[in-house]
Design a protein that fits this description.
single chain; alpha/beta; five-stranded parallel beta sheet; 14 strands; 43% helix; 18% strand
């Protein structure tokens, strides 16, 4: 890289950049005035990390916190930077100072993993105490644990997931207020929720005009996770075993996954895979933001480790890639709730003794809420659903219980406890 190229890239940013149409994300953005650590935005591919950086830059300019001449944005995926060396970052800063007569206060580095020796560069810039630094990276090359290792306490991370239901409504320009829930507009919200259960929240998928194109793009994401995020990254030789695990999880989402049980299935089909290997593969799928994995609640770390995990797909759109011919609508709802709990940053387990409860939510390290999810409560399943919820509440001394359904709403009193029944879509809007 030479100084003339650095000047061109900086000039394009200062003179030509305009914020694209943005859907405001519901994430806790940083207080830039007090941002002393490097902020790393991580998450699944195509979830909107670059656009989140654009949103924050637009907010800085709109709120008068800084001028355009205080901000440097660099996309390191730019093909012109393919031969860049670590020290060439200084050329960008020199070019910026030439054009603005000052150093930038805010550095936004997108796809920073394409910068050679990125962690050393970031540490050096951070040590100067001159910049507020925000970076984003693809999970294919930049895992959260690697950021933690490379930046050694100099950073904090923010996980960005695909659109929530509220964000999907905003993307589709569907407006609502609390009053809407009591008008004919409620039907518009439930129809949008039905679409969300099928299409999920990946922005680019929502933009596609037909169901066929949405499915094709979802398959492309699936293949990218399989090949780029896991197979190539970890140099996996047992391709068939990884593929089998991914297919199993797509079909058995919102269900228990036993490493021992899956190992037996492989042996029955003449395939060999050790428990350690299978456990590693499950971890890779979680690291790649393809799965969410919940442990069984126990005060014993060993018991949590030894029991089967409950697996969920990170976005509902992957459910449609499964081979199951009988849709379990209750499991679809449960998967959506699991992702939303993750989005809200909550610590979550499942409960299973003689009875089962879908979610135990912790607060300050202690069980605080029990949540059961089903499509609808009826005479057939109501005793079972309440029994699992109440068992978790009794055993774990939880005061708050919630049953989430598709469209039922009531308050029920059981064993001296008030249990709220609420539609999932309304809970998502809260």
């Amino acid at each position: 890289m030479n100084l003339e190229l650095a000047r061109r890239i900086v000039a394009e940013w200062l003179e030509e950049w305009q914020p694209p149409p943005l859907v405001e994300r519901e994430v806790a953005g940083p207080d830039f005035a007090r941002l002393s650590d490097i902020l790393a935005v991580v998450g699944p591919r195509r979830a909107g990390k670059t656009y989140l950086l654009f949103e924050w830059i637009s907010r800085l300019l709109r709120d008068g916190i800084c001028a355009r001449e205080d901000v440097l944005f660099v996309d390191f995926e730019d093909y012109r930077l393919s031969g860049m060396a670590p020290e060439d970052v200084e050329l960008l800063l020199v070019a910026f100072e030439e054009m603005t007569r000052r150093r930038p206060r805010f550095l936004f580095f997108d796809e920073v993993q394409f910068l050679p020796s990125w962690s050393r560069v970031l540490r050096t810039l951070h040590n100067r105490r001159q910049f507020h630094i925000v970076v984003s990276g693809s999970n294919a090359q930049l895992l959260t644990r690697e950021i933690a290792t490379e930046l050694r306490g100099r950073y904090r991370d923010l996980v960005l997931l695909p659109f929530s239901f509220r964000e999907a409504l905003r993307f589709k320009r569907i407006e609502w207020t609390e009053r809407t829930l009591h008008t004919a507009g409620r039907g518009r919200l439930t129809r949008a929720f039905d679409e969300y259960l099928r299409e999920g929240g990946y922005p680019e998928i929502l933009e596609q005009p037909t169901a066929l194109e949405k499915r094709r793009l979802a398959q492309n994401y699936y293949q990218s996770v399989f090949y780029r995020d896991i197979l190539d990254r970890y140099h996996i030789k047992a391709k068939a075993i990884l593929e089998g695990m991914m297919r199993f999880c797509v079909d058995a989402y919102a269900s228990l996954f036993s490493v021992s049980g899956f190992e037996k299935q492989l042996k029955a089909h003449g395939m060999a895979g050790s428990k350690r290997t299978l456990s590693n593969y499950l971890g890779y799928l979680e690291e790649a933001f393809f799965l969410l994995v919940h442990e069984k609640f126990s005060w014993s770390a060993r018991k949590r480790l030894m029991n089967p995990k409950k697996v969920y797909l990170l976005d509902p759109v992957f459910i449609g890639l499964g081979t199951s011919f009988s849709e379990n609508r209750g499991r679809v709802l449960e998967n959506v709730v699991a992702v939303e709990l993750r989005r809200r940053g909550l610590e979550v387990f499942y409960y299973k003794e003689r009875q089962e409860c879908d979610f135990v939510v912790l607060a300050a390290g202690k069980p605080a809420m029990a949540i059961q999810v089903c499509w609808e409560l009826d005479a057939r399943n109501e005793p079972r659903e309440y029994a699992g919820l109440l068992a978790a509440m009794r055993d774990l001394r939880i005061r708050h219980g919630l049953v989430l359904t598709y469209d039922q709403e009531q308050t029920s009193r059981r064993e001296g406890k008030n249990i709220m029944v609420k539609p999932v879509w309304k809970w998502l809007l809260a």
